[in-house]
Amino acid sequence: RAVLVIESMVNGDLASQLIGLVRQQTTKPIHFLVNTSYHGDHAYGNYVFPESTVIIQHPATKRYMDEHFEDDRRFMIGLMGKGKGIERVQSRSADVVVPDMISVDLGGRTVEIRHLGFAQTPGDLVVWVPEAKVLWVGNMIQAPSPALPWLLEGRHHDTIETLSRVQAFLPEDATIIPGHGRPMRPADIDFPLKYLRELDGSVRKALDEGRSAEEAPDVVVMAHYGDYSLFEWAHKTVNVPAAYSHLRDKATK
Predict the structure, then answer these.
(1) pLDDT tens, 146-180?
(2) pLDDT in tens, 206-223
(3) Residue 249 CB: number of other CB atoms within 10 A?
(4) Structure confidence by residue, pLDDT tens digits, 104-147
(5) Pairing mode, if any, of strands 54-57 and 96-97?
(6) Which of 72, 144, 177, 244, by CA, is between 20 and 30 Å from 131?
(7) Rounded CA gap, 115 and 101, in Å?
(8) Residue 234 contacts by C-beta under 8 Å, 6 or more apart in sequence?
(9) Closest CA to 149 of 213, 84, 196
(10) What is the Cα–Cα distance from 222 to 214, expressed in whole angstroms?
(11) 12 lies in which domain range?
(12) Residue 42 lies inside a defined structural domain of this protein
C-alpha cells in the first residue's frame, strides 16, 4: 500500500533525486521516512518529502534537530563547503518518535524500527525487514572492513555493547546495509568490535603509563588498521581522544 524510505540525504537536490528513484519503482505514496540519526547527510532532505509523509526518529534525534539545527547546519557547511545546497535546507523533525520499537505494516510487508542502543549518537535507530532479513543500521556501522567506527560522541563501551547486541539479534544469513558502504553480513561486525576492544586496551595502557591526552594519539598507533582511507583522521583525531577522555572520566569517578 505504501513506501517507507530510509534517510533523506544532505540537501534538497539529492532528496529530490532519491524521490525520483522511488518513483522509477512505484507510484505508491511515500507514507514514512526514517532518519537513523540527526546527522545532516541522513536527515537534511526531510523538508522535500510530501507533507503527508510521516517522519520517524528517535526522541533524542528530534530533540537535537529542534534545538540545534542552525548550529548543526553551520557545522555541516564548514565540513562539506559552501554552495552544496545546505544553505537552503529547512529543518523538519519527527512526527513520530521511537524510544524502543514500532512495527509498520506497508501492506503485506512488515517493517520494524528499533532502538538497540547508543552506537554513534544517542538516537541511533535501525530498520529491520524480517521477511527479507535486511537491517539498515545508519552510521552505527560506517562501512565494512577496513572502515573504522567514528566515536564522534565517545562512549566506546556503549558502542561495543550495542554492536554486540545487533550481531546477536541477526540471523547469520541476514544482510546489513551500513551508513556509507556496501552490504555486509553479521559476521562482518567482528571487525569494528575487534578494533574497539583493541582501542580500549591500548588507551588503558597509555593511561596506566601516565601518558597525557596530547601524547595518547602518538602512542596508540594501531597501524595494522591503516588500510582505512580515513585512518589518520578517524583513529588519531577522533577515536583515541574520545576513548582517552571516556576512560579517564570513568577512572576518576
Answers:
(1) 999 999 999 999 999 999 999 999 999 999 999 99
(2) 999 999 999 999 999 999
(3) 10
(4) 999 999 999 999 999 999 999 999 999 999 999 999 999 999 99
(5) parallel
(6) 144
(7) 6
(8) 148, 149, 150, 228
(9) 196
(10) 17
(11) 3-140
(12) yes
pTM exceeds 0.90, yes or no = yes
CB 4 within 8 A of CB 29: no
Q: Beta strand pairing status for 54-57 and 101-105?
A: unpaired
- 53 within domain boundaries: yes
Grid cell, residue 1, equals 500500500
Question: How many structural domains compose the chain?
Answer: 1
Cell of 218: 602518538
CA nearest to 30, candidates 58, 54, 57: 54
Radius of gyration of the chain (CA): 19
CATH of the domain at 111: 3.60.15.10
